Amino acid sequence: MTTATAELTGDYTIDTSHSRVGFVARHAMVTKVRGAFNEWEGTAHLDGDNPANSSVRVVIQAKSIDTRNGQRDEHLRSNDFLDMDNNPEITFVSTAVEPSGDETFKVSGDLSVRGVTKPVTIEFEYTGTAVDPFGNTRIGLEGSVVINRKDFGVSWNAALEGGGVLVSEKVTLEIEVSAIKNA
């Protein structure tokens, strides 16, 4: 890590009102649908001197999925997709953190969706540090990863008349984090 990030060692709480866990999937093979989860929480321990000692935990409420289309959101909450009634939470728990550049990191961990847990590695970029007007030290991170939804048991689809399917198997998860250092 750089000298600036080495000084950031400590425990953090993700400020979800200034952060985003979103996703992008192709719809009808011609356009992208974007959405996000509105209810979630996360914590992190950062070790600037030894990033391998860092860790992250995020818990997302599946019911909070929001694509700005109520009918689609209800379908995504159903057994066809997230099976929210039986699996109300989506979780990510890190298993390893390693630098991949001066200010980039690979965060590997276990992602659990719909009761299925699979390993994923998310590439994050450290985007900066600031002291907010309330005296809190904030750090910023941005990352993304492409997953195959079928790997998590999310296999519903519909064939299109001209070929192809209604919903892509590949989903890009987009994470933008503002985390506040705990006192």
TrEMBL record:
Residues 11-180 form the Lipid/polyisoprenoid-binding YceI-like domain. Gene3D superfamilies: Lipid/polyisoprenoid-binding, YceI-like. SMART domains: YceI (SM00867). Pfam families: YceI. SUPFAM superfamilies: YceI-like. It comes from the Bacteria. Signal peptide: none annotated. Belongs to the UPF0312 family. PANTHER family: PROTEIN YCEI. This is Polyisoprenoid-binding protein YceI. The lineage of its organism: Bacteria, Bacillati, Actinomycetota, Actinomycetes, Propionibacteriales.
